[in-house]
Amino acid sequence: QVQLVESGGGLVQAGGSLRLSCAVSGRTFSTSAMGWFRQAPGKEQELVAAINWSGGSTYYSDSVKGRFTISRDNAKNTVYLQMNSLKPEDTAVYYCAARKSILTGRQKNDYDYWGQGTQVTVSS
Predict the structure, then answer these.
(1) CA distance 19 to 42
(2) Residue 24 and residue 6: Cα distance in Å, rounded?
(3) DSSP 3-state of 30
C-alpha cells in the first residue's frame, strides 16, 4: 500500500518561510514524479510545483515561481517544498501527490496517490 505523509505545515507571518516534507512508502519512489498541490477555502485545488523522477525537471505555477522550490531526496524517499517570502494568499491545505510515471504531471488526474494534506496559514 502506497502512503504519502506530509509534514512541516503551520502558522507563519507574511514574509516568513516554511519547508514541507512528504515521505513516501510502498512504492519505488525513484520512479515516481511528484507534485505539490494546494487548496484554499472556496477555491479549486491547484498544482503548485512538480518534479520528475531525478529532480532534473521542475515546474512551478506563476503564483509561486521565484519563491518556492521543490526538491527530492531519492535516498530518503522524500520530496520537499521550500516556501519563502510567504504571502497571506498562500494560505491553504497543501497536498503531496505521486505519479506512476517518471515524468512531471500538470493535472490533478495525472497523479495516482495522495497524502492527507498539511495546513499552511500565513498571517498578515
Answers:
(1) 24
(2) 9
(3) helix
Q: What is the C-alpha separation between 112 and 91, in angstroms, rounded?
A: 25
For 35-93, the DSSP string reads: EEEEE-TTS--EEEEEE-SSSS-EEE-TTTTTTEEEEEETTTTEEEEEE-S--GGG-EE
Do the beta carbons of residue 81 and residue 64 sit within 8 Å? no
Q: 1 falls in which pLDDT band (50, 70, 90)?
A: confident
Across the chain, what does the average pLDDT equal?
A: 96
Q: Say if strands 10-13 and 118-123 run parallel, antiparallel, or are unpaired.
A: parallel
Of the candidates 46, 19, 18, 50, the one whose C-alpha atom is nearest the C-alpha of residue 32 is 50
Q: How far apart are CA 98 and CA 96, in angstroms?
A: 7
Q: Report the candidate in 46, 7, 49, 34 with the shortest Cα–Cα distance to residue 113.
A: 34
